[in-house]
Amino acid sequence: MHRLLSTTALAFGLLAAGSTLPAFAIDNYSPVTDARLANPEPQNWLMTRGRYQGWSYSDLDQINTGNVKGLVPVWSISTGVDSGHEAPPIVNNGIMFVATPYSQVMALNAATGELLWRYKRKLPEGFSALHNTSRGIALYGDKVYLPALDATLVALDAKTGKVAWESKVEDWKTGYYMTAAPLIVKGKVMVGVAGGEFGIRGFVAAFDADSGKPAWKTFTVPEPGQPGSETWQKADTWKHGGGSTWQSGNYDPDSNTVYWGVGNGSPWFGDQRPGDNLYTASTLALDPETGKMKNYFQYHQNDSWDWDEMNAPTIIDYQKDGQTVKGLVKPARNGYLYWLQRGQDGTISFDHAQPYVKQNVFKSVDPKTGRPDVDPDHKPGTGKEATFCPSLWGGKDWPYESYNPKTGMMYIPSNDNHCGHLNGRVQEYVAGQWWTGVDIPEIGFTVDKNASSYGEIQAFDVATGKKNWSALYPKSMMWGSVLSTAGNLVFAGGTNDREFRAYDARTGDQLWQFKTNSGIIAPPSTFSVDGVQYVAVESGWGIDAAGQQALISNLLGWPKDVPQGGVVWVFAVQK
Amino acid sequence: MEATETEGATPAQPSLGCCCQRRGLLEAALGLAVGLSALPAAAEDAAQGPAVMPPQVGDQFVFLTGDKKGQVVRVEDLAVGGPQMQAWPFDPKTKTARDQNRLNLVMLLRFDPSDLSGDTKANSDQGVLAYSGVCTHEGCPVNMWMKDLQFLFCSCHGSQYDPKAGAEVQAGPAPRPLPALPVKVEDGVPVVAGQFSGRVGSKIS
């Protein structure tokens, strides 16, 4: 499986951009090809959501409703770092690659937990980021691609962890940073950027997988003269208009279209940037080879609630009126669940939408266009305080929903019964500093103290929109991505009690739970090695889940702190 | 391609950012002799020019923001009781703001001297105080203000510091106080009177 690296190679690893330890290399690594990404083998978990369509679903069924009670940890490893762990374990034929906060990557023997190599990026002098997390790496060829926090794309040799190349994506000193896993299509490594609270102008950029050379860059906020620029009615507001792209996209190989989500407008208060503000709070349809925008859908205009729509919709063919519809389904941060239709030419058209949590901002949604009719009483502005539900964390924040084709259900990690209130002011723009129009101590957050639950997994029948079951958390919000499997199981953490749980995908019955070291906000993955199925997840609470927990502790008396510090857990059924 | 790429490969390269702490860690990891990195920190900073050097005794301050952005800070510019004003150290000899190193970001505040704790008072003059503006947690700018408590508030993870009492941590994840930068007032202008009281910045950078 591995051999000792030469002394020279070890020295190079240490002296390049970051350090790589320890001294093992991987023999017989299976290169990742376009064909494998398009049809990933069931035993592997080759990308963040498991497959291009973003299902967070596995065909493996060795672990199933009948034996999940026997699930036990088979190995674990400390990541050695704190902050929120938000990356899924990625597995390629027995080798696991997992990213941790602070732009680090571990390569492990997926069956035994043996550490093969570890890359630790040295962040630049004076660097800081709002969220020091990583949402994962991507694999292609014989390389591992890490979007580093300092807005640099790093390609590592998958066998050794050595830096193959680095490519600067943007200037971190102006507020850009990177957390989202890349999406790789036909040799193009696509990355998004974070920094929507720092007055960036968002974009999706692609780099050549072999050389690291920039291929294309498509801004999410148009400059004057470009299509959509008419929706930025006040001069120069586009320059720092936000539109971050801090979650990976999904890809439809059939139409060769990438769907990528776009975040909030910047600053947060729409009256400071009048107009619809394309393409904030939207899904973009992009050509992966050129970056050309084929089409878009904007969920809400002139965003004033910090409702990023950075998660790409899940690519699903669903049934409607006896017909199969090529669809896109998205539980939006704004609290509505959207059914959109995807055209072969990349067009996105609205089908229908319904709220999945309490939402008091949209009076209605136009049945033809999907454009919401916004209640001005619940739209905050500059010097205008307003309350809105859900709060800025949305009905669902970034954690991933799962679609299970066997049950026909989508499993949505959601949060209900919480509201926000904001009152904006004009803040002076300083490159690289917080610039939302409100200081953090003034961000209002309330919960319905009489509610019987807050966090929830909601299981919707995608064809009918009917909620089949829900798992309710009376004493926790839900911050965990969901994994579902052909074993009719749903796996998720996400709660402040450090539990990792398994449910019956058909009924919602809880079948198994295990208390980990910390709270789980990372996506679980599943894979098999030598015929044995495993389930893996990082446990490491932090970032927004921790910040929200601190606020709720004051409101509901929940514990203020959830222990931090990351551990990768791997489970299998006890023989 | 930040300093990280070539750091260590050419250890004495003077054009890189100031990486003294990280170089030390690298050397420790490699078990290398100190002599490999021959250039001492102060000389390395000097070689990079006045805009990168840390605050020097005698430096004035210039505003980072506001109507007087870029102008030298005077005592009367600072409101008694806060909030803080973000500023860069300013070398009056070369007329250079030391703004090319984020770790040089400082905050100036002014209080009634009788409100200051003993150690804090010793670092102040006419109630004027200076602290590092870089959070000791994860290096973010401490640029927000809690008016009721008169606490400094970090814009990333909510650490709170009491500027009247040595910027000790009052809440949040920060592990230690903000380093103080001693000041004295000369002709109505606050100037640097000493070195930072502790290591500037966080564990990550």
Secondary structure topology:
The complex is a heterodimer of chains A (575) and B (205).
Chain A: E1 2-4, H1 7-15, E2 19-21, E3 24-26, H2 34-38, E4 57-58, E5 71-78, E6 90-92, E7 95-100, E8 104-109, E9 115-120, E10 138-140, E11 143-148, E12 152-157, E13 163-168, E14 183-185, E15 188-192, E16 203-208, E17 214-219, E18 250-252, E19 257-261, E20 282-286, E21 293-298, E22 314-320, E23 323-331, E24 336-342, E25 348-355, E26 362-365, E27 372-374, E28 386-388, E29 402-404, E30 409-415, E31 418-422, E32 444-447, E33 455-461, E34 467-473, E35 482-485, E36 489-492, E37 499-504, E38 510-515, E39 525-529, E40 532-539, H3 543-556, E41 567-573
Chain B: H1 20-30, H2 41-48, E1 60-63, E2 85-91, E3 96-97, E4 106-110, H3 118-122, E5 128-132, E6 144-146, E7 151-153, E8 160-162, E9 168-171, E10 183-186, E11 189-192
Antiparallel strand pairs in B: 1-2, 2-3, 2-4, 4-5, 6-7, 7-8, 8-9, 10-11
